[in-house]
Design goal:
six-stranded mixed beta sheet, 9 helices, 16 strands
Length: about 325
């Protein structure tokens, strides 16, 4: 990544301003009027569906229109997403709409399900949707102090909750669930271990994943999860990339790469967790990649139970695409 001096200066200023908005309720209240708004309806973000070349984009709206659709108490119900990358000080917010406005939205836009948004949007936009959904869901479910049951109050940015009874320092923040997802290669690097669960689309196999437990390092979590689910032992664990994933909860997907140790390639599958697990060659994964590229509908209709890898937009897809050299 290479940035100009101007871009770096703007980025630092944006980060500092964003932190001020989180900490200073008066400043954030004033910023609402100049903000851009991503509206949600029952957990579904408002997106613009362009032609194939344009693809999906977030449909932002201004303060006046957002207030019309989301209510006069907009600032009490919205959450701060970030600062528009193309500006110095235009904040972006996510807001839940009042019921019954679906018929009033512009032609070419609609409230899309979260999976469609997460997989179909560019990565930056997908992260905004994930953040908006996670924060709005958190505020909807986290109503009372877990220590004394007092009703919690929020900051104007919607990024922190406070209990006035326990202590002024008793602040609560959204919980992030760390998950390790790993590309497991055989000792030669010529095969990859993929697994499937009953909930997966027909024919789809993916990388092994599991929650990182309290006090556990990423490396230990990777080794434990692979041993539990597949019955094999792996060697060195390398970090690959990460992705925020809002479904079914606010998860931080930490993607890793490892190889099975020599002599540890015979699978002992945990049938309570997995439906199946197999070693696949690069040729098989490449064929699957080309198949879903040509026919994305296989994720919804795969009557032949053809082997498919996870869709574009997922970190598992990136792990496998990297492995076959694309």
């Amino acid at each position: 990544m290479s940035w100009s001096l101007r871009r770096m200066t703007r980025y630092v200023a944006q980060c500092k301003y964003l932190e001020q908005l989180k900490q200073n309720d008066d400043l954030c209240s004033q910023a609402y009027r100049k903000g851009s708004y991503l509206m949600f309806s029952n957990g579904k973000p408002l997106l613009h569906f362009g032609d194939k070349s344009a693809g999906l984009t977030i449909k932002f709206t201004n303060f006046i229109d957002a207030q019309t659709h989301c209510g006069e108490d907009l600032a009490c119900r919205s959450v701060l997403l970030g600062i528009d990358e193309e500006t110095d000080d235009i904040p972006m917010f996510a807001s839940p709409v009042t019921s019954g406005i679906e018929s009033e939205i512009e032609t070419g836009t609609k409230f899309a399900d979260l999976r469609t948004a997460t997989l179909g949007l560019p990565s930056y936009d997908a992260s905004l949707v994930a953040r908006g959904y996670s924060l709005l869901t958190w505020l909807e479910t986290m109503k009372f102090c877990p220590s004394c049951a007092t009703k919690l109050s929020r900051n104007v940015a919607g990024t922190m909750l406070s209990c006035g009874t326990c202590s002024k320092a008793n602040h609560h923040y959204p919980v992030i669930h760390p998950v390790a997802i790993t590309r497991v290669e055989d000792p030669t690097g010529k095969k990859v271990l993929l697994v499937r669960q009953p909930k997966h689309p027909a024919g789809m196999y993916t990388c092994i994943a599991g929650f990182i437990e309290s006090g556990e390092s990423v490396e230990k979590a990777v080794r434990r999860e692979i041993a539990e689910e597949a019955g094999i032992v792996v060697g060195k664990v390398e970090y690959f990339d990460l992705q925020m994933w809002p479904l079914p909860q606010n998860s931080l997907m930490l993607a890793c790469i490892t190889r099975a140790m020599p002599g540890s390639t015979t699978l002992d599958i945990d049938k309570q967790e997995l439906e199946d697990a197999k070693w696949f060659t690069k040729e098989e994964v490449l064929k699957s990649y080309k198949t879903i590229l040509a026919n994305p509908n296989l994720f919804r209709n795969n009557e032949g139970n053809e082997f498919i890898i996870p869709p574009s937009g997922t970190i598992a897809h990136s792990l496998l695409k990297n492995w076959i050299g694309l």
